[in-house]
Amino acid sequence: MNKDKIWLSSPHMGGNEQKFVNEAFKENWVAPLGPNVNGFEEDIRKYLFSDSSREGAVAALSSGTAALHLALIMLGVNTGDEVLCQSMTFAASANPIAYLGATPVFIDSEEDTLNLCPDQLRKAIEDRVSKGKKPKAIIAVHLYGMPYNVDEINRIAREFEIPVVEDAAEALGSTYKGEKCGTFAEYAILSFNGNKIITTSGGGALVTKSQAAKEKAVFLATQARDAAAHYQHSEIGYNYRLSNISAGIGRGQMEVVDNRVNARRQMHDFYVNLFSEIEGVKVYSAPNEDYFSNHWLSVISLDEKKTGGINREALRLHLEKLNIESRPLWKPMHMQPVFKDAPFYGDGVAERLFENGLCLPSGSNLSPEEKNRIKTGILSCFEK
Ligand SMILES: *Cc1c(COP(=O)(O)O)cnc(C)c1O
User: Fold this and answer.
1) Count of domains observed in the chain
2) Which pLDDT value is given to residue 51?
3) Are 260 and 173 in contact (CB under 8 A)?
4) 18, 254, 328, 356: which sits with the fewest CB atoms below 10 Å from its CB?
5) Domain containing 126: what range?
6) Do 239 and 329 sit in the same domain of this protein?
């Protein structure tokens, strides 16, 4: 029995990607600029802002990580500064803090959304301020597509006058109180890596509040060239722009983004259904109607006292034998060897989630047969 692997999340082309890529070849726009880059930026801007009272601009970049790096640079983060960051996240949320010689200060999650705990955030800010150092920024993540508590986090950020960087890498298409994730903060970032909700094969974007901020980001992303024919530089620059070929893939993907969100949400419903009969397994879902998740990945947690001893590792290994991929939640940053010296404010929520949580196959391209294999595979683990 050598069944094909079922992946957690794999690329899912819509059909028109190649058309945009072919146009780029035909016009010889094989460069990190061109009509696809401009078109893709405009597609994303419209998607995020067209039915919103807010305004913004979008800079297409080579990765979500690059976008975070530029956001922190534009906020003036420097050597010796401190930046607050959700602990339960992918390392890419925190690495750019270290690129700048600043110190990450990690914050625990709340159980409802898995995201920044407002109480721990407030505690951390008050403590850092009392130690004489006001944090330069707050990196808040919409993990697995679930929006963070936007109102509470914004209230705290305003009260202490600390800007928020919104990590919406996993949350394209998610909304909070009807507004799209990626529009809530001074800067937001998106990712189009291969495993995300849409992909450009690799890429990202920085969402800014103004056209001027976007232009500054593009300036930094193209080696910070002053307006002179002879390559003059007054600032350190980066090579972070998105390729016109990749952007062509992105334009095709933006035509199907809503289908992709619907399909992921259907996978979540599939798991809600499947586990409704199984004692001791919780499927993470929106805490109330303010939250609309794209459910980039469906997340469960297992209480082995109620599942008859089946914990997340038992289920993961069981599925692995059936060639079905599943994964523990992101290992919190304050538990990572590389960040072991960074301060952390929390009381065990992220540790517990990491211990008991599992991400299940969630791709928008899973066939009915594959869903059936997943269902049978999961049920057979709990019937033992
Ligand atoms: C994927 C991801 C990023 C980084 O995006 P890349 O495009 O891979 O650099 C940042 N934050 C989170 C939460 C992510 O999942």
Assistant:
1) 2
2) 83
3) yes
4) 18
5) 17-256
6) no
Angle of helix 35-49 relative to helix 17-26, nearest 10 degrees? 150
Q: Which helix (H) or strand (E) holds 98?
A: helix 95-99
User: What CATH number is associated with residue 377?
Assistant: 3.90.1150.10
Whether residues 178 and 318 share a domain: the answer is: no
Helices of type H across 222-348: 244-254, 257-275, 312-321
86: enclosing H helix or E strand: strand 82-86
pLDDT exceeds 60 at position 1? no
Q: What is the pTM of this model?
A: 0.97
Cβ of 169 below 6 Å from ligand 1: yes
Q: Are residues 88 and 213 in the same domain?
A: yes
pLDDT computed for residue 85 by the predictor: 98
Give the pLDDT score at 383.
87
- Specify if 6 maps to a domain: no
Q: What is the mean pLDDT of the chain?
A: 97
Q: Please tell me the residue having the least CA distance from ligand 1 atom 14.
A: 169
Average pLDDT, integer, range 318-330 = 98
CA distance 94 to 115: 14
Q: Is the CB of 193 under 6 A from ligand 1?
A: yes
Counting from 1 in the atom list of ligand 1, the atom nearest the Cα of 191 is 7
Amino acid in position 179 = E
Same domain for 38 and 73: yes
Is 173 close to ligand 1, i.e. is its CB under 6 Å away?
A: no
The dihedral sign for the CA sequence 98, 99, 102, 105: negative
Ligand 1 atom closest to the Cα of residue 92 is: 10
Express each pLDDT in 42-88 by its tens digit.
999 999 999 888 999 999 999 999 999 999 999 999 999 999 999 99
Q: Is 65 in the pocket of ligand 1 (CB under 6 A)?
A: yes
The verdict on the CB of residue 96 being under 6 Å from ligand 1 is: no
